[in-house]
Write a sequence for this structure.
């Protein structure tokens, strides 16, 4: 529910369990459009999984969801990778954070992206998916999975995966190619003999993710999770 009348969010804030206040301790611009925001707080009760997220109330009538990219319980810090684009309510809210600012958020929740029994992963997305990619990486490495990241990024953000120290990634220009079946057929993953054994995590642009899923389903019965984060022309998806 990204948008709702003010009274709905007021009631929800009173009823839903909250974290103690979080304080901004660091902000870092990874590009003109991608920012890392670090908070300090009491996160001892948080059970963070791959893809866990928090909802930030960015205005009286709007909430935006951000994936937790990193947590360190010993240092009591938590981080988010946020896409700053245009004058959207979420972008403005996150971009305005300064060191010392306080955030009041509900408890973290999780999407079921990760399965330990799956040996191989392809994780696809765009700027909005970088936080999820970061949350996946330590688990994939620790548990010995084979994995490949595919990102479609604006040229201004093409170096961000490297700055985030992600591994096994390929960056493609954000030019609509992932909506083209003929082009998708030639993706490197489809040229490998074992690609049907991969689980595909498809996020980011709804149109790109759906086109990618359509082609995979046409080729085989691989496991797929599709979770589009945004759709052009639809506010607050």
């Amino acid at each position: 529910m990204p948008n709702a009348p003010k009274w709905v969010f007021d009631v929800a804030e009173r009823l839903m369990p909250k974290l103690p206040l979080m304080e901004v301790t660091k902000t870092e611009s990874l590009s003109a459009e991608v920012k890392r925001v670090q908070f300090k707080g009491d996160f001892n009760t948080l059970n963070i999984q791959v893809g866990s997220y928090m909802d930030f109330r960015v205005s009286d009538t709007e909430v935006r969801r951000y994936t937790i990219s990193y947590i360190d319980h010993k240092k009591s810090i938590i981080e988010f990778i946020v896409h700053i684009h245009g004058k959207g309510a979420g972008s403005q809210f996150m971009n305005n954070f300064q060191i010392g600012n306080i955030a009041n958020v509900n408890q973290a929740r999780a999407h079921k992206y990760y399965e330990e029994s799956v040996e191989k992963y392809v994780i696809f997305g765009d700027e909005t998916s970088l936080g999820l990619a970061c949350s996946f990486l330590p688990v994939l490495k620790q548990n010995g999975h084979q994995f490949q990241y595919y990102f479609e990024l604006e040229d201004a953000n093409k170096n961000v995966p490297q700055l985030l120290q992600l591994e096994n990634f390929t960056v493609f220009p954000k030019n609509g190619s992932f909506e083209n079946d003929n082009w998708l057929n030639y993706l490197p993953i489809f040229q490998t003999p074992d690609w049907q054994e991969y689980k595909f995590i498809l996020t980011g642009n709804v149109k790109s993710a759906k086109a990618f899923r359509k082609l995979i389903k046409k080729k085989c019965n691989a496991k797929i999770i599709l979770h589009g984060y945004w759709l052009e022309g639809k506010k607050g998806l």
Notes: The chain has a mean pLDDT of 89. The first helix runs from residue 6 to 15. The first strand starts at residue 22 and ends at 29.
